[in-house]
Protein 1
Amino acid sequence: MSQSTMRGKVLVISGATRGIGKAILYRFAKEGVNVAFTYNSNEQEAQKIAEDVKNKYGIKAVPYQLNILEPETYKDLFKQIDEDFDRVDFFISNAIISGRAVVGGFGPFMRLKPKGLCNIYTATVTAFVMGAQEAAKRMEKVGGGSIISLSSTGNIVYTPNYAGHGTNKAAVETMVKYAAAELGEKGIRVNAVSGGPIDTDALKKFPNYEEVKAEVVERSPLNRMGEPEDLAGMCWFLCTDECSWLTGQTIVIDGGTSFQ
């Protein structure tokens, strides 16, 4: 799809101040798409990104604060977006939680605890549902759109300490299928993009980061780690008319590592 066809459309994306979310934001902005994006706490970085893409690409970009552990606040967020933008065409659920919020959810099976597991479900599955519902209401008014949830291969490949996250990635991928089945009649396509280990700040926080990186490079036939831009390209593709008959799918981008 040419830039002229996409220019003026609007992407809403959660968690876009770093890593995969930031790469997606820049990919869409480069093509002339206006961007409404969320951040958790770093307002300064969010404003800096907004100014950068506005200056570079001549688009509209507005950051909004969102805590995905309170997904019901998506209703208020979209009301704010309605005031700043005249439409919503694409929604990408990307934000994740880390740190204290995942204590009891990130660890070996025998150390998993209810609160941590519930927090991961809230941030991964419930946040996707609440955001997608609000986005779909707006997309219906403009004749359709594309919704994407980010996922990871931790639900198909054993990853140490990742049981809490992996099971919730499986859950959100199934939720994507249900959403696709029910929103298709509105012209809305819903898919997931599942990444293998991607070289981001989040991964660098893993205590065994260097070990993970070395293993991924060794396992991948392409002999490298995944980069945020690898997922950004697929998210862009899924929002173009090139994918007008693709819905309810999980696209795995893992450098071939899940087959090894």
Note: The first strand starts at residue 10 and ends at 13.
Protein 2
Amino acid sequence: MGGYNTNEIFRVDKGFVAQLQGVDGGRRAPMNKALREVAIKTVPDEFKIEVRHKRGMLSMGKFEAPDTGTSSFSMVLGDAPFLDNKYTIFGRVVKGDAVLKRLEQVETVLEGIFVKPKVRVEVVSAVVMYADGRGGLVLDESERRKLEL
């Protein structure tokens, strides 16, 4: 639905996480009614003991209470075992560690409890891909149009 397009990476804590704002709060682009309804939903926790918070993992943002996952998520920039079995891991960076390294070079400032970029950093566009079973990725058919835009 394009929810992450123009969304802000509001937190860059070197060696820990780079975190995207939730779809309902970090976008510059307007939201239609359908996206707004999806953006405010929460999702249940899902943990697997063998899946750990290591560099490159994508970890769902949530509130303290169980089953309150949101559309905010973090890209883990270092090992963070204290997040294991507290935050759901739903993916990982397969290619693009250079992007994570560039994020860690962004100039930051401490604001309250968050280490924030001094200038706005945002996702221009995001697409859905899935594993092909041979170690590669395949673009979801429904996403092809986005690449043409």
Note: The longest helix spans residues 97-104.
